[in-house]
Amino acid sequence: MSKKKVIIIGAGLAGLSAGCYLQMNGFDTEIFEAHNLPGGLITSWKRKGYTIDGCIHGLLGSSPSHPLYHLWNELIEMDKIDFYDSDTKFVIITKHNRRFFEYSNLNRLENYMKEISPEDSTVIEDFINGVRKLQDTKAYEVMLKKPREFFNVLDYIKMIKFTPMLGVMKKWLNMSAEEFSNQFKNPFLSEATKSFISPILFEMFVLSEMDLRRSGYPIGGSLKFSKLFERKYLELCGKIRYNSKVSKINTIPNGSPKLDKACGITLENGETYNADIVISAMDGRTTIFHLLNGRYVYKKLLDIYKTKELNPSLINISLGVNKTFENEPGTLIINLEHPLSLQDGSIYNYLKVRIFNYDPTLAPKGKTFINIPLETKNFEFWSELRSENREKYREIKTVIAEKIIELVDIHLDGLKRNIDMVDVATPVSYHRFTHNWKGSIQGWANENIFENKPIKKELPKLQNFYMIGQWVQPGGGVPTAFLSGRDLAQIICKRERKSFKRTKI
Ligand SMILES: Cc1cc2nc3c(=O)[nH]c(=O)nc-3n(C[C@H](O)[C@H](O)[C@H](O)COP(=O)(O)OP(=O)(O)OC[C@H]3O[C@@H](n4cnc5c(N)ncnc54)[C@H](O)[C@@H]3O)c2cc1C
């Protein structure tokens, strides 16, 4: 029997993951990618001998003690990746220029905070105990066992039962960093904890994994990581066509009125390719409203696209510095004396400075790669500026980089006089290279983890068509992209009455 032909649009992690698992299960897949590289948002680029990165901070499931590790390991050799686990999550520099060490090790963090302020022991213990409760992986085991689309009532009950102390989670989900910091009697702890992530539950999730050293940074950076999936896909005899931007998803009537099926794609250059199944692993909005011309949108989906918040994009400042910073931590949070206002209207009270002294592969010997991401939601400003006045666009990028260098130089001795590379990516850069809506780096905002449900991977009036990636799961992210591709392969296998295989056939 001939194999079913599947076209996947986009060689980001979601597309590569779906491609690998479908190849393993006897489908004939082909990925069409607009760019000339795999990975989508999980990328790096070269400039003046530096590798510019900023995507993966820590890979959830980097250690075998986390259930996700074994899923990653189905596609890439996890034991061959060199993961770096930082001893501090952040070092926070307060406005009064004191450094707070947010240790990843919970015992160390607890003792350190209690030494600073014994009178705050109750608040500290409440927080640390809460983080420990999040380390239980039983809920993950239920969640990762099968796609959410296959869940029955019993699975949901199990998931809720195993979700560590639901009440405790709700408590921290409803608490902002400001509210948390107000609980401390000690002024230094109160000031430092204002820089924790809001809601505090998100801060706790990250700490819970860092303590167990299960969310390490893969040495070599993001593109190197993406290329591992590309390699696996090619080993499985998958085919990728780069520089192949898809402009249309072709559909034909499927017998009954008002029901169509996807039958292939058309590229920007006019070439058409036929398939039994089409998967979009690219920007959701472009897929629904342009490639499908808005023909299959339904009310709920339309409401989502009209009303839901997006995750921000970035003004991403990367610096190459002709100096090492071996005594500095991996990430500094610098609270600014005065808020910083940028030309696009964004205002920042602090800077996050990532000092990649732990990944020497990103810089020439004796030098350091440093990255300062600034979140912004004003895509329109950057897009209009670049298209109307390219010179001004470049000038504003330079002015912003200079300002940031001044501010960071106060805390990193010798930074300014040793700069030998500056690169500024804007929301337009993210849009140009990945075509994500407004340059969003993580799709939909995860406003409330208890309420945000996955968006359906299928459109009700279009058969043989699926969507995966960061636009079908609020919050987006690296594990989400990977899992959505894997989940879809299981869904397709079930439809085709195949048992799902996770190894090379
Ligand atoms: C700087 C940065 C920091 C991040 N930090 C984190 C983090 O700490 N933790 C975390 O979990 N996540 C993080 N993310 C987010 C994470 O990388 C993404 O959510 C995830 O990689 C999305 O994967 P995807 O496959 O869904 O989409 P994408 O990576 O966007 O892939 C889509 C692919 O489709 C291609 N494409 C688009 N349109 C077309 C077309 N018409 N034809 C053909 N191909 C097309 C694109 O070129 C792209 O390759 C970060 C991202 C960035 C950029």
Secondary structure elements and pairings:
Blueprint: E1 5-9, H1 13-24, E2 28-32, E3 45-47, E4 50-52, E5 59-60, H2 67-75, E6 83-84, E7 88-93, E8 99-103, H3 106-116, H4 121-133, H5 138-145, H6 153-162, H7 166-173, H8 177-181, H9 187-193, H10 200-211, E9 215-218, H11 222-235, E10 239-241, E11 246-254, E12 256-267, E13 272-274, E14 277-280, H12 284-291, H13 299-307, E15 313-321, E16 331-341, E17 347-355, E18 368-376, H14 379-388, H15 390-409, E19 419-425, H16 427-434, E20 462-463, E21 465-467, H17 478-495
Parallel strand pairs: 1-2, 1-14, 2-10, 7-16, 12-20, 14-21
Antiparallel strand pairs: 3-4, 5-9, 6-9, 7-8, 11-12, 12-13, 15-18, 15-19, 16-17, 17-18
Helix pairs in contact: 1-11, 1-17, 3-4, 4-10, 5-6, 14-15
Bound molecules: flavin-adenine dinucleotide (FAD).
Keywords:
binds flavin-adenine dinucleotide; Guanine Nucleotide Dissociation Inhibitor, domain 2; 21 strands; alpha/beta; 36% helix; seven-stranded mixed β-sheet
User: How many separate domains make up the residues?
Assistant: 3
Task: Supply the CATH class of the largest domain.
Answer: Alpha Beta
Helix proportion of residues, in percent? Answer: 25-40%
What is the chains' assembly state?
Answer: single chain
Q: What is the number of E strands?
A: 21
The residue ranges in which pLDDT falls below 50 over 5 or more consecutive positions are none
Structural class: alpha/beta
User: Which whole number gives the mean pLDDT?
Assistant: 95
| Amount of beta strand | 15-25%
Number of helices: 17
CATH superfamily of the largest domain: FAD/NAD(P)-binding domain
Largest sheet, spatial ordering of strands? 8-7-16-17-18-15-19
* The CATH architecture of the largest domain: 3-Layer(bba) Sandwich
Ligands: flavin-adenine dinucleotide
- Named CATH topology of the largest domain: FAD/NAD(P)-binding domain
Radius of gyration, CA atoms, in whole angstroms: 23 Å
Note the gap between the termini. Answer: 16 Å
